[in-house]
Amino acid sequence: MKVAIFPGCIAATEQYACELATREVLRELGVEVVEVPGFSCCGWPLQNVGTVGWVYLAARNMALAAEKGVPLITLCNVCNRIFYEAKFLLTVNSELREKISSLLKEEGRGPLDGVEILHPLELFHDRIGVEEIKKRIKKPLKGLKLAAHTGCQAIRPRKLRSIDDPEYPRKLPSLIEALGAQSPHYPEALDCCGAYLFYTRKDASLTLAGEKVEAVQNWGFDGLVTICSSGHRMLDGKQDAAATTIGKALNLPVVYYTQLLGLAMGLAPEKLGLQLNRSPVRNLLGKIG
Amino acid sequence: MVGITDQLRATKPQPDLVDRFYKVVEKLKLENPFHCYQCFKCTSGCTSFRLTEIMPHSFVNFVRLGFVEDMMRSELLWACCQCLKCKERCPQEVAPVDVIFLLRRMTVSSGAEIPEDLSKIIMNVTETGFIQGIQKVKVGETSVDREQLGLPPITLPEKFSSVFMRAMEEQIE
Question: So what's the ipTM on this one?
Answer without folding.
Answer: 0.96
